[in-house]
Amino acid sequence: MKKDWLSTKFLVLFFVLTLAWTWLCGFIPVVFGFTGTGIGTFVFYFGGGAPSVVALFLVFLTYPKDKRKDYFRRCFSFKQMGWKWPLTTVVIFTLLSVVSIFIGVGLMGSDMPGMDYIKAIAANPLNIFLVILLSLVSGPLNEEFGWRGYALDRLLLKFGFLKGSLILGFIWAIWHLPWYFTPGQAQYNLLQDSVFHALMFIPSVMMLSVFVSFVYVKTGRSILAGALVHMFSNLIGSQLLSPYTTEISMLVRYTNMVFFLGVIVYAAFSRKFKEEAQAVIESIGKQED
């Protein structure tokens, strides 16, 4: 089995098991009417860890020993990731959020975000560790052993940089389907406000996926770097601003999408980046030998 560890059949299995597990757990409280209860919340969040759990199961089941070692090194190595791209990502998402708030509050008259997390950190700087922990658990830790750690390499190898990243982004987006029907979730709030805004969540995640892949390539396939982009996107563009109006939420999302579009155009037309991406893809292909 471990001779074909990089085969497409395991990628399909990863997606099928991940979607089935998450959708089953996500829709059970909705169908049986116990969303918002203790057991309903537990079942819902139990499905949220599917991408990472399924990926880790497949890694231990199918990867040769040296490939498992490489996988976990890329998950946890700060040395490989470096600090350039994580810090760049923080600056980018901060600027995008500031621009969004300026447009929303300064030009459109929306209410200023409450920024309860920022206030909590200002009151006690040690709270920053709790905020980061919550942000890490609420997305990257539950998902990134799978999305970037397991699926991305195979999609890059089969479809190339842009198409592979967009396919992963689409699956990542529709994986959130139960969130649309669970009160208290951002996607549920979007759907209550506007079907258009709710549907735009899908292309926004697809475009974010390209940016995460871009950083993944720039850091030599660092899974940790991809996870931190995911975390900073959630933390700076959502959690630190909470509570906020739907108008601010969508302005942040659309401002981010404009930036991501720039990344997509650059990735599509930059000869230098295409050569970098191709070199990474070729390095993935050599692992099959």
Task: Give descriptors for this structure.
289 residues, 16 helices, mainly alpha
Shape field: globular
Largest sheet: none
N-to-C order of helices and strands:
HHHHHHHHHHHHHHHH
Radius of gyration: 19 Å
Record field, number of beta strands: 0
Percentage of residues in helical conformation = over 70%
Derived structural class: mainly alpha
Description:
- The protein has helices spanning 8-31, 38-46, 50-62, 65-76, 78-81, 84-107, 116-123, 127-137, 140-143, 147-159, 161-174, 186-193, 195-218, 223-239, 246-269, 271-286.
- It has 16 helices and no strands.
- It is an all-alpha fold and 289 residues long.
- It has one domain.
- The chain is 78% helix and 0% strand.
- The chain starts with 7 loop residues before the first helix and ends with a helix.
Summarize the structure.
The chain is mainly alpha-helical. The chain has 16 helices and no strands.
Mind sketching the topology for me?
Blueprint (H helix, E strand, L loop, with lengths): L7 H24 L6 H9 L3 H13 L2 H12 L1 H4 L2 H24 L8 H8 L3 H11 L2 H4 L3 H13 L1 H14 L11 H8 L1 H24 L4 H17 L6 H24 L1 H16 L3
